[in-house]
């Protein structure tokens, strides 16, 4: 299989002169003689060609002399003929128009060639991927004629699914789709094992679409990768847009990037507000464009007497759409058997390994056409709740002086203050009742948090941060007056923490969204709506609840009385609670608006966008605890502009860069010691201690052929090539999928049950393919394979399995490894297993990247880099590729955040804090390589819908000290004022008073000032010669005595790429 995967069929192969069979059994003869077509000149100016000539850019030219001669000829022709009009079938990118080299996209009717130009993919593949189009037709004058590639069996025209099988006849190939036709088709005239995709190395096979000649490429328009991306974005709004339109004012304007420090909350709002709006607008367009028609519905009646519609969404199967439990859909009947009808409901079940059906519980039951099953359409209902609450939180932060304490206010803005110590009586025992005993690092974390107004806790995998967080909440609730608000960005994380806190004996209320009240959870008895239903203090309310359950609805008077009693009962329950738990977005629920929370703890804070974290903080916070791990996956931002501007950055990370050292939990209780060794050394400076021993993590009843018996891990060499998945936006690797099935089967035979195994892959295309492959090709019972959880790295974050199988997928000659290069993604994947890990990948490709080079070297040193059959694994002798970036220092040079970020910046060339010419405050180098990380998770692939969770990848492939990108707010040459804060501000509600005479930017002398906390509500109108980016109509601050200071602002651009269409926030 590996041999075939590396074989390429082209015009020079034995299948050169062939006939291609379509589903109508018509034969098209392919003329494979390499006749160089005489191509007219593209519509370009002389300067375009001169620029190309100067750069010497061309593909595969035989010699520089021939290159110069061709350029001279082109320039002479241009001077003689001027500009030549292009034919209608010219490539929309570069202008190449040889009939044999171009194809037409059947969706948008634009033509594209099979040339790579300046990109890693051919122009036609680039367009199909970016536009999510999948059908093409060849030119009428091409060797194969006006042909639409389609499956011989089922007629599918999805070119990302299509491949060919050479028939026994030397002159015929058969086109079949990868699944299911190629997998199940059996015919004596062809060998299904020889199936190969029509798109190889991101270009169409040369016998199908001929690559343009060197002369044609030389004469073509030179278009950059960035221009292609911008043009595709522009085509979504204007199908007739051209390259010239990209130069028009206002096109593709970039938003203001986020800063490291902010002058005040107005500047903070003016920078983050537009980013949230950009993300909201993108999310709305995406959701509203996902209408699906021709849906077949199966009707059911739920236990609550509500109608449930069961159906399959084709776009969901192909990975184009992401759906989560609690999302709202609108179902419409479009047939003629019933009058027009539509109903809105929320999703109660999403596809899994057992069933591809979606369960939609409708809000209203009247008029539902249950007698109809066909001709339905589904629309995604977009809700602005999450984004509205973020915007409101930032506005509240700016205008309401009681939203947070003065100390928290300035710390969140990045102003330098003296550390504060809260005056509090320490408990004699830091472990909480009902929870496990804390270890030394956990006790230190609890003790430290109780004494500080703002704390960061870093919880590496398996270190018990949920137990630590619950212990902290217990002591905060017992020591301080008022209630504690506990939040996390996801419902799963909130439920886990809620359960732990409940075990301590505290009164806990879990607040959920209305759309999630019908969903079952482990803490359902703690939810507000369930406590209301079980309340015994409101007899009249209980009667109305029973009446509504029996009759389905109430009279108008009873309904008003019912809602009034519900609100009253909810208020009483919330007021009586010690702890209220909800998602970050849920903290903006109107039911909490009248409550004030002195103490807020946010779990998984590194997975939340910064504006999302602000929602719970502005409810009166005077003490905040952020718990997370910035070495694991971060927030998901869908819009590329917002991602480039830094919305992918979590508040936790920004505070770390500002010098707030996180308290790290250091004892892991999950992994076998050999599994924790590499993550500890690579991501946590070797500080992770093992709370479990090797004998405790070796299962004697499992007879699995580990290459080294006392080291339950190995890297299994796979050389099969990657392929683009059916969605066009993800990848799969058939060889790895086949070997995953073999390994799973071996685990079964060794005594491991399905629930103990997890298959992890970064790509949705591979996830889907593995699920189908195991069920159709597994040698054991089908039901066993159905119980195996196959999911993305993101889905496994925060969870664990006994055994993890990681399929890396990426295997190519020169396309890179996409977001496999994200160290946080690798960290999560490697740290999910308790007893054993198996990694499948191509060492030769992966070793080109420093991070993976270290991992492979680690496995090789342990004699666990192997090849061969599972029953006879042998050490691999493969030679690693040289890493593309040379690492001058040892691995511990690449630790992130191990020192104060200011010390790190001070030691970086050009950023010395004691250098008067250094970059300061909010204006470090905008994209300084040592300070920022770029976002290039997927190379040219724009969106791997379900698998992408983090975009914050690293250009070096290794962990770095500082996250990015923090942009400059002041133009080059401008000045920023510096100032300090009086003790009356920094000490308010935060313990003993201090005097801080240091500058915000840490350099030069400062002027002491005393002003009240309410002064922050007045907007500054000027800063000497400095101008504040962004404006606000919320008022102005009075003038202060500032000391101006020269600063440099380096505004170099950075190549930033983002992929993903997941929702960036969770509606509580």
Helical percent range?
Answer: 25-40%
How would you characterize the largest beta sheet? 7 strands, antiparallel
Low-confidence stretches: 1-68, 886-1068
Strand-pairing-aware structural class: alpha/beta
Question: What CATH architecture label of one domain applies?
Answer: 3-Layer(aba) Sandwich
- Reported by name, the CATH topology of one domain is Rossmann fold
Quaternary structure type: single chain
Portion of residues in beta strands equals 5-15%
The largest beta-sheet arranges its strands as 11-17-14-15-16-13-12
Kindly, what is the distance between the CA atoms of the first and last residues, rounded to a whole number of angstroms? 47 Å
Structure summary, number of beta strands: 37
Number of helices: 30
Family: Belongs to the DNA2/NAM7 helicase family.
Keywords: ATP-binding, Cytoplasm, Helicase, Hydrolase, Metal-binding, Nonsense-mediated mRNA decay, Nucleotide-binding, Zinc, Zinc-finger
GO biological process, one term: nuclear-transcribed mRNA catabolic process, nonsense-mediated decay
Protein name: AAA domain containing protein
Describe this entry's structure for a reader.
The chain has 1068 residues and is α/β, with parallel strands linked by helices. Among the domains are: 2-36 and 85-225, no CATH class; 297-373, Elongation Factor Tu (Ef-tu), domain 3; 515-577, no CATH class; 693-893, P-loop containing nucleotide triphosphate hydrolases (Rossmann fold). The protein contains 30 helices and 37 strands. A seven-stranded antiparallel β-sheet has the order 11-17-14-15-16-13-12, with no helix packed on it. The longest helix has 24 residues, at 265-288.
């Amino acid at each position: 299989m590996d041999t075939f995967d590396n074989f390429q069929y082209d015009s020079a192969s034995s299948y050169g002169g062939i006939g291609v069979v379509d589903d109508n059994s018509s034969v098209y003869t392919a003329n494979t003689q390499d006749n160089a077509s005489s191509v007219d000149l593209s519509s370009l100016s002389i300067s375009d060609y001169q620029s190309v000539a100067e750069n010497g850019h061309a593909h595969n030219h035989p010699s520089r002399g021939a290159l110069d001669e061709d350029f001279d000829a082109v320039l002479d022709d241009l001077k003689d003929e001027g500009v030549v009009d292009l034919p209608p079938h010219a490539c929309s990118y570069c202008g190449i128009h040889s009939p044999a080299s171009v194809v037409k996209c059947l969706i948008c009717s634009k033509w594209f060639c099979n040339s790579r130009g300046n990109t890693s993919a051919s122009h036609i593949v680039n367009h199909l991927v970016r536009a999510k189009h999948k059908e093409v037709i060849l030119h009428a004058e091409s060797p194969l004629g006006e042909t639409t590639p389609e499956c011989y069996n089922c007629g599918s025209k999805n070119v990302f699914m299509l491949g060919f099988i050479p028939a026994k006849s030397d002159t015929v190939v058969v086109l079949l789709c990868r699944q299911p036709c190629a997998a199940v088709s059996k015919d004596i005239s062809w060998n299904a094992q020889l199936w190969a995709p029509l798109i190889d190395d991101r270009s169409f096979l040369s016998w199908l679409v001929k690559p343009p000649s060197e002369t044609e490429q030389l004469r073509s328009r030179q278009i950059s990768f960035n221009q292609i991306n911008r043009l595709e974005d522009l085509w979504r709004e204007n199908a007739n847009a051209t390259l010239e339109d990209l130069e028009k004012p206002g096109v593709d304007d970039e938003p203001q990037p986020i800063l490291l420090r902010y002058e005040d909350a107005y500047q903070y709002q003016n920078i983050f507000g537009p980013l949230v709006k950009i993300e909201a607008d993108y999310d709305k367009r995406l959701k509203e464009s996902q209408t699906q028609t021709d849906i077949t519905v199966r009707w059911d009646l739920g236990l609550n007497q509500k109608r449930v519609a069961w159906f399959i969404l084709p776009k969901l199967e192909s990975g184009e759409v992401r759906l989560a439990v609690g999302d709202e859909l609108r179902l419409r009947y479009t047939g003629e058997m019933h009058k027009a009808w539509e109903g809105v409901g929320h999703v109660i079940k999403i596809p899994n390994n057992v069933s591809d059906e979606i369960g939609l519980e409708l809000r209203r039951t009247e008029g539902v056409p249950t007698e109809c099953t066909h001709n339905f359409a589904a629309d995604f209902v977009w809700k602005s709740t999450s984004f509205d609450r973020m915007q409101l939180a930032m506005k509240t932060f700016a205008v309401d002086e009681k939203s947070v304490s003065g100390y928290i206010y300035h710390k969140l803005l990045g102003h330098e203050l003296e550390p504060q110590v809260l005056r509090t009586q320490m408990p004699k025992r830091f472990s909480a009742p009902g929870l496990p005993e804390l270890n030394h690092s956990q006790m230190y974390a609890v003790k430290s948090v109780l004494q500080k107004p703002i704390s960061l806790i870093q919880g590496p995998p398996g270190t018990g941060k949920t137990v630590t967080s619950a212990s902290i909440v217990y002591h905060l609730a017992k020591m301080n007056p008022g209630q504690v608000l506990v939040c996390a960005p996801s419902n799963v994380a909130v439920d886990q923490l809620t359960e732990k806190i409940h075990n301590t004996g505290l009164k806990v209320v879990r607040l959920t969204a209305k759309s999630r009240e019908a969903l079952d959870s482990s803490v359902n008895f703690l939810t507000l709506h369930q406590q209301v239903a079980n309340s015994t203090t409101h007899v009249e309310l209980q009667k109305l609840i029973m009446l509504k359950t029996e009759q389905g609805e109430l009279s108008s008077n009873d309904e008003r009385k019912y809602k009034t009693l519900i609100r009253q009962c909810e208020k009483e329950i919330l007021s009586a609670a010690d702890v209220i738990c909800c998602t970050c977005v849920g903290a903006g629920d109107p039911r909490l608006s009248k409550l004030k929370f002195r103490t807020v703890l946010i779990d998984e804070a590194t997975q939340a966008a910064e504006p999302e974290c602000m929602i719970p903080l502005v409810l009166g916070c005077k003490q905040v605890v952020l718990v997370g791990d910035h070495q694991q996956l971060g927030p998901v931002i869908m819009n590329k502009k917002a991602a480039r501007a830094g919305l992918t950055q979590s508040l936790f990370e920004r505070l770390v860069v500002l010098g707030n050292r996180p308290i790290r939990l250091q004892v892991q209780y999950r992994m076998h010691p050999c599994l924790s060794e590499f993550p500890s050394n690579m991501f946590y400076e070797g500080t992770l201690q093992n709370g479990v021993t090797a004998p405790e993590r070796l299962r004697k009843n499992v007879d699995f052929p580990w290459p080294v018996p006392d080291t339950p891990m190995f890297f299994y060499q796979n050389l099969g090539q990657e392929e683009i998945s059916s969605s066009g936006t993800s990848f799969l690797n058939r060889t790895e999928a086949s070997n995953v099935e073999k390994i799973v089967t071996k685990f079964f035979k060794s005594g491991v049950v399905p629930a103990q195994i997890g298959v992890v892959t970064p790509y949705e295309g591979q996830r889907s393919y593995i699920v189908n492959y195991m069920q159709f090709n597994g040698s054991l019972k089908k039901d066993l394979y159905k119980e195996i959880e196959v999911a993305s790295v993101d889905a496994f974050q925060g969870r664990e399995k006994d055994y993890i199988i990681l399929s890396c997928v990426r295997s190519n000659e020169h396309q890179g490894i996409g977001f496999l290069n994200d160290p946080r993604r690798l960290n999560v994947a490697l740290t999910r297993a308790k007893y054993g890990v198996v990694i499948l990948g191509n060492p030769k490709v992966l070793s080109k990247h420093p991070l993976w080079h270290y991992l492979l070297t680690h496995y090789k040193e342990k004699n666990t880099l192997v090849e061969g059959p599972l029953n006879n694994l042998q050490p691999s002798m493969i030679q690693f590729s040289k890493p593309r970036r040379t690492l001058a220092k040892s691995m511990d040079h690449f630790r992130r955040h191990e020192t104060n970020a200011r010390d790190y910046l001070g030691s970086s060339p050009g950023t010395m804090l004691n250098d008067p010419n250094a970059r300061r405050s909010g204006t470090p180098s905008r994209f300084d390589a040592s300070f920022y990380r770029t976002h290039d998770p997927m190379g040219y692939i724009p969106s791997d819908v379900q698998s992408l969770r983090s975009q914050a990848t690293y250009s070096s492939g290794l962990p770095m000290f500082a996250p990015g990108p923090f942009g400059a707010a002041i133009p080059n040459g401008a000045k920023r004022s510096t100032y300090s804060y009086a003790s009356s501000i920094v000490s308010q509600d935060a313990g003993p008073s201090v005097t801080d005479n240091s500058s915000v930017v840490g350099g030069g002398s400062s002027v002491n000032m005393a002003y009240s906390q309410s002064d922050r509500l007045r907007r500054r109108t000027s800063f000497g010669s400095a101008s504040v980016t962004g404006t606000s109509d919320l008022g102005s601050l009075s003038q202060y005595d500032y000391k101006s200071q020269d600063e440099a602002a380096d505004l170099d651009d950075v190549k930033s790429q983002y992929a993903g269409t997941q929702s960036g926030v969770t509606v509580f």
